[in-house]
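Render this sequence as a predicted structure.
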Amino acid sequence: MFSKNVEYSGAPQLSSWRKIAIGTWKSCGDPSAYGTLEVDATALLEKIKREKEAGNKVTPTVAIAKAIALSIREYPILNTVLRWGKLYQRKSVDVFLQVSETESRKDDLSGVLVRDCDQKSLTEIAKEIRESAGLVKKGDDVQYKKMKSIINLLPGFLVRPLLNLMAFLMYDLNLWSPLFNSPRDSFGSVMVTSVGMMGIDNGFAPLVPYSRCPALVAVGEIKQRPVVIDNQITIRPMLTLGITLDHRQVDGKGASYMLKAFRKFIENPQ
């Protein structure tokens, strides 16, 4: 009477990141709000060029991380944690940047957390990202290695309960211990992921519930595009951001303040 609905060839071995992703999102019924921002990156690229001429290894990702941190500082309600129905203000602005692992593990992701990102210079941020990302790509991801090893050992159906338990302990109860095998406040104030590195002009990324980050920024590829300036069509390097926000903590009007601040910092990096 019954037959197979779908023919399967087998179950591939999942990376720790893929198991975490499956255990993270249960449904699409979340409070996410989405928006895009297109910014003229001419001044940003000139700033990066001057930094390189001075011997400083600064990339667009570094400058964007700094600009996002400054923008959140301008609109501090985004720098909060929602717990027990109340918003609690963070004392620092920390930016989490997602980093891909080695070529042999293309499906695995990790990250670099830059603490006090709004207080650091571009050179300091660049050095911190470069050193931490280098360890990740070598497979020596010290901060998250132990937790990911535990995830690899768990059967898939136990991943979500573990993630929810960790979020409850670390954010709802605001407890931390070295026994958690995870850095203190692992994901910081905002998460940043670069889709431009994959050749994608722009895109959106989902919020990560257990991170308790109310904002996630997907950075697109900087591309030459025609724009109208003083009623004249000209070609400029344009950067597109895909913004995902937790609507419980910020609405469209509030987000516009942050995005205006971001535009100001990118178009006037001095």
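Summary. Residues 122-137 form the longest helix (16 residues). Residues 32-142+185-267 form a domain with the Chloramphenicol Acetyltransferase fold (CATH 3.30.559.10).
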